[in-house]
Request: fold
Amino acid sequence: MSRDRGRGKRDDAGVSTTRKTFAILETLADADGVTITELTRRTEFTKSTVYRHLTTLVDLGYVIERDGAYDIGFRFLEISEQARTRRRGYTAAKRSVFELGKETDERAVFIVEEEYEGVYVHRYGSLSDTMIGKRRPLHSLASGKVILSEWDDDTVADFVATAGLDAITDNTITDPDTLAAELEQIRDRGYAVNNEEHMDGLRSVAVPVYTPADDLLGALSVFGPTSRFTDEYVHDDLPNRLRDKAGEIRVTLAYG
Amino acid sequence: MSRDRGRGKRDDAGVSTTRKTFAILETLADADGVTITELTRRTEFTKSTVYRHLTTLVDLGYVIERDGAYDIGFRFLEISEQARTRRRGYTAAKRSVFELGKETDERAVFIVEEEYEGVYVHRYGSLSDTMIGKRRPLHSLASGKVILSEWDDDTVADFVATAGLDAITDNTITDPDTLAAELEQIRDRGYAVNNEEHMDGLRSVAVPVYTPADDLLGALSVFGPTSRFTDEYVHDDLPNRLRDKAGEIRVTLAYG
DNA sequence: AGATTCTGTTTTATTATTCGGAACATTCAT
DNA sequence: ATGAATGTTCCGAATAATAAAACAGAATCT
Reply:
């Protein structure tokens, strides 16, 4: 019995007004600090519709209006933080990501699976690369492969059937059998490596993070340019550091 | 001319369906991992209404359904991150909060003003206290007073008239003149202190964070128990540390 | 200064959609 | 097997969202 994941692919039943609201919201998130007419241009709705939805959102506090321009408000932060603190381990992972990044001086992330996608939950890195909340195909990430390696064959098969194995780069694993072999190796080694499977010039290493009850919480990962991420670094140094941090999270959860 | 802040206090015009959706969403955020009937109990809506709204949100991916229980999804993280990265300084402040917390071994936060309220945007602290996204009255926080001290008299007066000066503890400043004097002192010193004005047994220190263009970005703050937060610690040691970190953010933005 | 062309806002009748209640289906526990 | 929960579907009635056009105000241009 494979888990019920992935998009439900329901028909377009339900509340269509709510769909409109979120369509406007997503457009606004893409183009922040935008005016009503500009937002109307970017959506398929009329000006009065956008106007009414927006003013409602402003009234609710979810959208901020400043000098006629509209922005996503911090009230969403309160809601999203609910998802980020649902499991205590997520919070523990936050600190580990930071320490890991500081100690290695590399970019570090903590990734969780939701709806058959990898979601960046915590990150340490430069000012510019803001990936938190972004969603990526599991099979193209070291952390994603780590998560896949924890699932049983049926679930992986369902994932392949539902999400597919799209080629993100030339190196992305697109063959189910190759994936199965890769996952087997990850289970053996205890860590996953990504060789430019998600982005050219980028390698990464990831390990699973478990709760004290041995439930999979997510994956801890470090990534960087191929020039610096040599085989030795990737296969010897980093896996141990990552495992240490993953272990710390477990211990923190067990003994506070 | 005071700025147009605070809640617009519009009438209940607009899209009432959207209001319902967010009412359900907020209830769900309060009581995560809840069932449809339970959610119906906690709201003023009928079961079919909650059902329709929820399934729509699940279909959109903003709510996750697992074994009949509903959770806030990580898709909100993508939206809220838009607010958190709107200004580059917000991202820079994240690292400063972490370093500050690590170095002082205290709880540290970065706070921003929105709609006349103080919003916790970044925090370093123990596993349990999750304050990110939470909103607090500006006049009851050291960081809030720092922000108020940067405003002109008209804006402060408008804030007092709109938000009021509610007493949160016995020490909260509730008198406008006392507040004015306090803000004057903060401007002189360059930092603000909170003496159990927000919570009994808690003291804190805060400094303003500026952009290279001298715009106020937010406030950096450290807080802890009165027992440990002696006058010397609060007035000598911490202000300098905080100022250093605030300066680093500025420099990062200018040359980083 | 006057005219033009953008905005944001309001109004209206029409239409489409949400709503609530009840019926149905399903699961679970006893 | 029975009963009491739950989740789900259906439907007519009532409401609420919609589009379009008209209005107001600001900004830009001549």
